[in-house]
Amino acid sequence: MGELPTQNTSALALPRLQLNRGSTTATSGPESKPKKKICCACPETKKLRDECIVEHGEEACAKWIEAHRICLRAEGFNV
């Protein structure tokens, strides 16, 4: 009890990160506007980040915070 769901978390964050690496040709022009509101983007990483912070504190969750930022950037947000 109280352990982080490391296996599920990396499985959720990884596919989105791999998609971003493969789409480098689409980013040669100016970045497009986000299609969603920031509160609705990346629900998977947001949930994992929030659960970690509630259970362990912000200092212990840098990995999940950064994963959520990467996801948000992939969605077109400047964070």
Strand percentage: under 5%
CATH names the topology of the domain at 35-79 as: Helix Hairpins
Shape: elongated
Q: C-alpha Rg, in Å?
A: 14 Å
Q: What is the residue-averaged pLDDT?
A: 75
Separation of the first and last Cα atoms: 32 Å
Secondary-structure class:
mainly alpha
Annotation field: number of helices: 3
Order of helices and strands: HHH
Annotated CATH architecture of the domain at 35-79: Orthogonal Bundle
The total count of strands amounts to: 0
The CATH class of the domain at 35-79 is identified as Mainly Alpha
Residues in helix, % = 55-70%
Low-confidence stretches: 7-29
Give a short account of the largest sheet.
none
Q: What descriptors fit this protein?
A:
mainly alpha; Helix Hairpins; elongated; copper chaperone activity; copper ion binding
Write the layout of secondary structure elements.
Blueprint lengths: L5 H17 L20 H14 L5 H13 L5
Helix pairs in contact: 1-3, 2-3
Keywords: Chaperone, Copper, Disulfide bond, Metal-binding, Mitochondrion
Family: Belongs to the COX17 family.
Subcellular location: Mitochondrion intermembrane space
